[in-house]
Amino acid sequence: MRLEKTEKDWSNSKSAYQVFIELPYQTNAYQIMSDEKFFVDYCKNFYGSHVCSEYQMDLKRNLVIIVIRKSFSGYEVNIDNVVETVEEPIKLLHNYIYKNTNYSNEYIALHGAVVVCNGKANVLLAPKYTGKTTMAVYLDQCGKEVVSDDCALINVNTMSVLAIDVPFHLREGGLNVLRDGLGLTFEAKPVSADNMDVRYIYEPRCHTKRNISVGQFLFLNRCDKPISVLTRLCQREIFNRLLKAVLIPYKLSQEYICSISKLSQINAYEVNYVDLDFVKGIIENL
Question: How far apart are CA 64 and CA 181, in angstroms?
Answer without folding.
Answer: 43
